[in-house]
Amino acid sequence: MFTVAVDVMGGDLGPRVAFQACKKFLKSRPDVHLIVAVTQDFADEAESFFASRKSRVRILPCETQISMQDKPAQMLRQGLKSTMAAVLREHQQGRAQGILSVGNTGALMVLARHLLGTLPGMDRPALATLLPTRQKPLLMLDLGANLGVSADQLVQFACIGAAWSKVQCAAAPRLGLLNVGRESTKGTDNVRQAAEQLQRIMPDYYVGFYEGDDLYRGELDVLITDGFAGNIALKASEGLSEWLSEQLHSEFRNTWFLRWLSFLWAPAIARIERRISPARHGGALLLGLDGVVVKTHGKSNERAYRHALEYLLQKVERFDKPRLLAELNRLQNH
């Protein structure tokens, strides 16, 4: 059995969307228990909603929640009684094997670093997720947890990204740095300095600079960037995916002949949407923490929240800390 803790407060759509997603998730995964953190004003409603599954759900009432407007710098003074801190403590104390939050990313990083700590050699965690590409999933980090980073921190992200990929997939990962060009003279000082270090410490993994239009070619296993560029690239990709999906449906439905043949094209469109839908790739892991912490979009609907829960459980099931630490140590001390 697995137990995961869920912070359902702080999202744009409120906790009831998360309640629905949690109930459907429990139905599909009978081997999972949930700890659901809510504020006091939602505690009774949550107890009632999960009454039929009370043997597998523990409601955790808390004094406060963290909003999207709260400043991360205030978290260690004001956020320790929040739902977000509560689920992190459940993980820290071993009652949950991983956590999911829909709340403020900056606050989650600050509280997670404080309560869980980071892995050796990591100044801070990076937000990472697997993006679908033409050939194989691409692990991209950072996606928004650290807007500005040094060359050394980019190298740290590369070490944890490569170590995670190697442990998950066994094969030696191909790793690149996101840049505005492939030439060695392109990019900021931090990016060029990081490239020099990576060529030295992981020559078997590092394959050079990659540009934004390379993201979906499927040539890489890991792509490293700072959180500013990474978040823009991710959000632009998600917006494009949604627009393309709308265009496909519009084109097919606005022609009577194609509508009549919907039984032929509708399954293909559904398969494409399953591969590229942002809702199916809405979970991101804070890599570099001493634990399994997943963040999902603040605007997550029920579908996106359920996929984030599934993503969290995949990471819990495959988290091999001894092997991860061994590979991370090997790369850091090369």
Write structural notes for this entry.
With 334 residues, the chain is an alpha/beta fold. It folds into 2 domains: 2-117 and 289-319, Isopropylmalate Dehydrogenase; 129-278, Isopropylmalate Dehydrogenase. Helices cover 47% and strands 16% of the residues. The protein has helices spanning 15-28, 40-49, 75-78, 83-92, 105-115, 151-169, 189-201, 227-253, 256-260, 262-276, 302-318, 321-332, and strands at residues 2-7, 32-39, 57-62, 99-101, 126-131, 138-141, 175-178, 206-210, 222-224, 283-287, 293-296. An 11-stranded mixed sheet has the order 3-2-1-4-11-10-5-6-9-7-8, with helices on both faces. Helix 4 (83-92) packs parallel to helix 5 (105-115), helix 6 crosses helix 7 (189-201) and helix 8 (227-253) packs antiparallel against helix 10 (262-276). This is Phosphate acyltransferase. Pathway: Lipid metabolism; phospholipid metabolism. Catalyzes the reversible formation of acyl-phosphate (acyl-PO(4)) from acyl-[acyl-carrier-protein] (acyl-ACP). This enzyme utilizes acyl-ACP as fatty acyl donor, but not acyl-CoA.
State the end-to-end CA separation.
38 Å
How many beta-strand segments?
A: 11
Strand order of the largest sheet: 3-2-1-4-11-10-5-6-9-7-8
- Percent range for β-strand residues: 15-25%
- Whole-number radius of gyration? 21 Å
Mean pLDDT: 86
| CATH homologous superfamily placement of the largest domain | Isopropylmalate Dehydrogenase
Under the CATH scheme, the architecture of the largest domain is 3-Layer(aba) Sandwich
The unreliable regions are none
CATH topology (fold) name of the largest domain: Isopropylmalate Dehydrogenase
Organism: Thalassolituus pacificus
Catalytic activity: a fatty acyl-[ACP] + phosphate = an acyl phosphate + holo-[ACP]
Subcellular location: Cytoplasm
Protein name: Phosphate acyltransferase
